[in-house]
Amino acid sequence: MSFPFGAIDTAPYFCNHRNMPNLSSKKNSEEIAKFADMFSAMGTEPRLRIMQLLLSAHPEGMVVGEIQSELEIPNSTLSHHLDKLRNEGLVIVSRESTFLRYCANTEALQEVLQFLYAECCTRNKAVAPRDVIQICK
To answer: What is the model's pTM?
Structure first.
């Protein structure tokens, strides 16, 4: 059998030897930074309590006054916490007349859970997938 361009090229290709910039690693770094910011936003006790409360009120959510009275957080402090959660995409806010209604962004939370699941349960099997399912029941 004759090859039109001579002998088979056996020189190593850059893509097989990691000599070329890896675009997927940049994307992965950006994704990890995004999740780190999300975890950071939930990384304080008041914000985690807010997320827990909004998840318990899902899908309707709660207006600011309801959140404030339930958690007994001063309005100015609550506003700061809600802004941080909103900026990281963890909560969705909508205006209803003169009220602001906050809802947990379940799509963003699902992304976070998928990220954790992929790392702990599929790639290195640190946690057995069946154990995660047991936790959710």
So the answer is: 0.73
Q: Considering Cα of 39, then 44, then 50, then 56, what sign does the dihedral take?
A: positive
The arrangement of secondary structure in 25-105, i.e. its CATH architecture, is Orthogonal Bundle (1.10)
Beta bridge pairs of residue 62: 102
Distance CA 137, CA 130 (A): 11
Note down pLDDT in tens along the chain; length 137 residues: 555 555 555 555 444 544 444 556 776 888 889 999 999 999 999 999 999 999 999 999 999 999 999 999 999 999 999 999 999 999 999 999 999 999 999 999 999 988 888 766 666 677 776 776 666 66
Residue 106 φ then ψ, to 5° = -70, -25
